[in-house]
Amino acid sequence: MVQQNSTKIVLVVLDGLGGLPLRGKTELEAADTPNLDALARESACGLHLPVGWGITPGSGPGHLGLFGYDPVEYQIGRGVLEALGLGLEITRRDVAVRCNYATVRDGVVIDRRAGRIPTEQSRRITEKLGREIKRIDHADLVFAPGMEHRFALLMRFSEPLDPAAGMIGDTDPQKEGMPPLSPEPLSESARNVADVAERVIKKIGEVLKAEEKANSILMRGFSSMPHIPTFQASFGLNALAIATYPMYRGLARLVGMSTPALEGGVEEEIAFLKQRYHEHDFFFLHVKKIDSYGEDGNFEGKAARIAEFDRLLPEIVSLRPDVLVITGDHSTPALMKGHSWHPVPLIMKSPYVLGGVCSSFSERECLKGELGVFPAVHILPLALANAGRLKKFGA
Amino acid sequence: MVQQNSTKIVLVVLDGLGGLPLRGKTELEAADTPNLDALARESACGLHLPVGWGITPGSGPGHLGLFGYDPVEYQIGRGVLEALGLGLEITRRDVAVRCNYATVRDGVVIDRRAGRIPTEQSRRITEKLGREIKRIDHADLVFAPGMEHRFALLMRFSEPLDPAAGMIGDTDPQKEGMPPLSPEPLSESARNVADVAERVIKKIGEVLKAEEKANSILMRGFSSMPHIPTFQASFGLNALAIATYPMYRGLARLVGMSTPALEGGVEEEIAFLKQRYHEHDFFFLHVKKIDSYGEDGNFEGKAARIAEFDRLLPEIVSLRPDVLVITGDHSTPALMKGHSWHPVPLIMKSPYVLGGVCSSFSERECLKGELGVFPAVHILPLALANAGRLKKFGA
User: Fold this and answer.
1) Which of A107, A294, B5, B210 is buried most, with the most CB atoms less than 10 Å from its CB?
2) A385 — contact with chain B (CB < 8 Å)?
3) Cα Rg, chain A, nearest whole Å
4) DSSP notation for B57-101
5) Do B82 and A374 touch (CB under 8 A)?
């Protein structure tokens, strides 16, 4: 039902936007947001449910829903998400794993996190592994250093893998004093991958045997790339992801958006939006810091980051996109210091809205809005409709 | 779960009711509607989504949803809708086609609309075809003249057809300078129908060969009648359709409503409702002109037609139906000069509502209503419940 035209759609994701009240006001209500408020007054507003009632989404499902994909149908494994977050490019030939350095003595795990070794030391060890173990059997290995005791590993095979090839049990026994588990294949097509993983663990043990703490590893979240139809094929949009954090570029890459590397903050992101505005017709612009302050339980900090975005908003509005959507991928109330299940406020600006319903942009005002409370997966079709990019259904 | 009683349900469809603001007010907000406003104050109100978020429905899916059928599950082909609109009765033995007269020279289409020949001339030619080509192979042919270069054709076979028998590609090449395409069967059961269509085209070419412009035809939207359970079987209602436009009677006939022919305007429709009020328990009353003005982009005209209906509303209310539903089949904002995806305001009057929630009947007031924003397919079950026609679910 998709049709082409020359319209432009901008989707701004204020990560973790939704909140809960402290002294009567949510972060969004407490923040100074004259520009968002003015936009809300002339736009269609509502709240979206990222996955469903009571479901707290991770960043993966939160974004897939906003991109128009059912996050229950298309699930992203933890290994894949970790690898994306560390900037790795994942293909259909890869199985990704989250790894911990661990201390193992006499076949028993005595520290599941290798004493939380410093990031610098961890990086040095991971780079050594990358130099010394490039290939096991017919799989190339790609190591990516992470924070403290963490790193990600890709096992890259010569052929595209079956979607079930990553169904392998964790090797982390979850308690100290137990031996590490063997990577157990949970599907027929995972058998070969599990064999490779077993040999990788053995080889890493040999390379690290002289290390005092990080002398072994534990593997978790084995996963292969989900088979998601591309954004272009699904919605006919040539999309650009504008995100300074690798994980969000990685999520956009999973659905085939262009994802050039970018450094800096929101100002650099908006400058990049302007620079590339004529080259694409859909723009996903990701604002990270709002969520980070929510995760830290810093109510004032989160409100300040929202206000900071508000001051930059006129620069986006001045591009006059045909459809401008501003929302979050999930709520992160400072009160809860983490993601939550609460519906997320949303503004959709286009020439084809009622408007005049909400007096400001907040959780409580959006409840009155013309879009109601609705599943995130409908946001993209609605944006397409407002952009004149959907044909009539039936005669 | 359906049970019988002696209640009466009236569903008034104000075609294309929903709108968008011009100078701050929608058509419905701008219209003078004291009677609708009073009814809204004492009724359950809300907005329905005809098909889904962002989906602009044609008249077919718009009405099927209001009749309680999932419009995605039951799709009505373009040929069928065209034939219904021209007043043809369609059976399960028929394949319906929308046809254009075209000018073809040396095997190439030089005008896809035969110079938009006048309706009178087109009617004369179509009647001639009806006289001269009554049967091809084992299929009877039924021709119905339309406007300008358009007409509808039924190929009526001796036995009921498989639902896939109408899956045949258009013969319209979409551009001038190309030869017409052959009717290509897209399913096994369409093969025989496509053969007949090919012979129909050839025979029509022979009959029209002396015509200067309309010397050939192009066929589009091949379709057979959808297999929809009847309204009586689904909902236990003996239904009467009151509509002056053939297409809406045709849609009601698809689900087995009684559909006597009727001429005139809304006053004649209401008189007919009164006259037949004791013979049925469900009444679908269709008001066309509101949509027509919306399609023309005539904001004032659309508002005037709404106000005109408002003045007649007391005559319907005075019948004291147990449940009175007033809504549209889709929105047709004058601003957009066409159907749109926007939710449609709805009033449901019964003794079993909260009421006292909305101060008038409008898109924005209905947002506050006790029914919220919900899929059209739930309207009929809700009306049945309000009429005491649904049993308890479970013990």
Assistant:
1) A294
2) yes
3) 23
4) B-HHHHHHHHTT--TTTS---HHHHHHHHTT----TTEEEEEEEE
5) no
Q: Which residue has the tokens 């139906």?
A: B321
* Cβ–Cβ < 8 Å for A324, A270: no
Closest CA relative to residue A90, chosen from A100, A101, A99, A77: A77
Rounded Cα distance, B256 and B237, in Å: 10
Contacts of B75 in chain A (CB under 8 A): 394
String of DSSP letters for B172-183? --SSTTSPPPP-
> Rounded CA gap, B52 and A381, in Å?
9
Q: Which pLDDT score is estimated for A85?
A: 87
Tracing tokens 């961890």 back to the chain, one arrives at A122
Are the C-beta atoms of residues A303 and A27 closer than 8 Å to each other? yes
Q: What is the pLDDT of residues A280-324, one digit of tens each?
A: 999 999 999 999 999 999 999 999 999 999 999 999 999 999 999
Q: Is A353 on the interface with B (CB under 8 A)?
A: yes
Q: A83: closest CA among A99, A68, A71, A72?
A: A99
Contact of A226 with A163, CB cutoff 8 Å:
yes
pLDDT, mean of residues B292-317: 98
How far are the Cα atoms of A58, B20, B317, B332, B360 from residue B45, in angstroms, in the given order?
37, 18, 16, 20, 10
Partner residue facing A394 (CB), from B54, B71, B335: B71
pTM above 0.80, yes or no: yes
Q: How many CB atoms lie within 10 A of CB A230?
A: 13
Q: Do A205 and A233 form a contact (C-beta atoms < 8 A)?
A: no
- CB of A359 less than 8 A from some CB of B: no
Q: Is B345 on the interface with A (CB under 8 A)?
A: no
Q: Spell out a b/e string for B58-71, using b for 16 or more CB atoms within 10 Å of the CB, else e.
A: bbbbbbbbbbbbeb
